[in-house]
Amino acid sequence: AFQYPVSDWQAAVFDEVMAAASQPMILDCGCGTGMSSTLLAEQFPDHDVLGIDQSLHRLSRHKVFQRRQHEHVGQAGNLFLVRADVVSWWLMLAKTQKQVARAYFFYPNPWPKGKHLQRRWHGHAVWPLICGQADFIEMRTNWLLYAQEWQQALRWCDRQPDFSLLEDALPCSLFERKYQQADVDYYRVCSNS
Q1: Less Cβ crowding at N or C end of the chain, within 10 Å?
Q2: Which pTM was predicted?
Q3: How far is CA 114 from the centre of its chain?
Q4: Average pLDDT over residues 88-110
């Protein structure tokens, strides 16, 4: 079993958010400034969207997080912006057997060196938990090899990947906007359980 220490403050924040979230859950993993989380909350008003990032600096750029009542959580309607470790959240979701309706990974850092494979989401020890707890998974990247690796990793977890080139899509993150403006190809890999 994957052993990873979850801190007491992470567990307390998790419990607080789970108590406040009452609808099917969407995770925006590594949400950065929360732009993508805001778009998801608008797109899925009947879901609770949890944008999770460990960077206080990036989250603090979002008005919902700036007006937060809790040190680590900002909330407005169905949008929660949470300063936390995403790996810890997947572990706590698995431990409490909470299913995630949708999980998004928009422009995850691909850790380009081969020796860093275990730091990429699909090479990390938490990957089987993600595949087991999320009904739908979507990842976007401008790195074709990374997208191909995701496809294979999904197959290894008995999930069927769907691969596509994103063209003229509404940018969901600052990275995606930058790539679109530079006319750089970017890719989408998704999978239903």
Answers
A1: N
A2: 0.94
A3: 23
A4: 91
